Amino acid sequence: MVTRRSVLGAALATTGAGLVTSAALTPVFSAREAAGAEHDGTAPAAIAAPPVEPFRVALPIPPVLTPVSTAGGQDTYAITMRPARKEIFRGLQTEVLTYNGAFPGPTIKARSGRPVVIRHLNGLTMPASVHLHGASVPADSDGDPMDTFAPGKSRTYTYPNKQPHASLWLHDHAHHMESEHVYRGLSASYLLTDDVEQRLGLPSGAYDIPIALRDAHFDGNGALVHIMDDVLGRNTILANGKPQPYVAVAARKYRFRLLNSSNMRFFRLRLADGGPITQIGSDGGLLPRPHPTDALMLSPAERIDVVIDFARYPVGTKLVLENTLGPGTPEQVGQVLRFDVVRKESDPSTVPSQLRTLPALPAVTGERAIELRMDEDGREGAQGYVNGKIYDPNRIDVTVRHGSSEIWTVTNPNKQAPHNFHMHLVQFRVLERNGQQPDGSESGLKDTVRLLPGETVKVQATFNTYRGTYVYHCHMLDHSAMGMMAQMKIT
Predict the structure, then answer these.
(1) Kind plus residue range of the DSSP H or E element containing 94
(2) Each residue of 97-109: pLDDT tens digit?
């Protein structure tokens, strides 16, 4: 359970950056190799999580939340943040934090041009702040890290939904508490659609499935263990809140909306047979064109929409979705879920060769350099920095003129620690990665972009919606809680 003592301990970042190293991006290795690493002191002892019998539990589908009102041309929802006990491991109850008792939270389905209002009641023991990640919203509904509301109090957030379709998500953003709150379960999908998306004929309904991926550290009784910067300890992978579930599918096309809701872990996903995957979307909605691939890279908070066609497999096929990045062994982190092809079925869906047309980038009005860095020398009280500074809510780091379109060059100078970059309010375009044009996976609108050690990414963002103060930060939430966050003011 979240306590003030545990949160303050996280805020002081006692474990240091030594755990957030290139180990976070290593290939998975065998149990025998892992044992050797533990013996020579390069990895910690194995975590005694409860045993899992793989692929015995069906993938849960988060419930779709029903509005309490649709009057006045808007959809109004009521959500209570509260603790709950869930069966993550068979026969054991795990205490988690939830939106309306669901782990992960319920899905909200919204439509461009129709506002959504959400009344949140804080049933926790700690302050909270709710951020709709990837959304263009007024500053007073953005979920600023310092704009919290206390236990027992409520807060209403208004989302105009003036932006195009996108797979967004809700999560807690209370500073120094965001890491533990999200880790313990405060996240939920928010799927925004529009006519552009609807008329394409993509797989829909029961064939459009949101899957929230994350890792966690459990003790032998199934309790969540939160330790700041605990990359090596979080070696149980959950898909929609369950370890190694199966998904019964028909021999036809499915759309999967993948969300990396981890605090720290990067995923590299592939089908066990190396089969083709068609990426159709990223953070800010559909790509201009489908991107065929056999592997998907997801850093924390990134979303990828894919279509997998199971028609090429005979009924009875069992196909594992693998993760090929460590830390952890293949037994611990290598098998995410399994697709079981159980029946034949007609398939009227299609994936057009042209998905959307993005508007031309406007003329550039300015450029900025952003550096994400953290202490990685093993010191106690390690901290994170944006341009050499720790987050200060009383400081404006960047002033941006409303209507401007700027190029931000974001660099990770760390030798070992990966980062990623998230900007509130706007979806941006990735122009370059390490001086090269990005591949098709980053050709769409983005709000979060990965930066491996030594990488530089150049993005263009246009600030033509709302004025006010917003944050930008590393979305490895343990890093932002350690200070890797800054503020921009759009005037």
Answers:
(1) strand 94-99
(2) 999 999 999 999 9
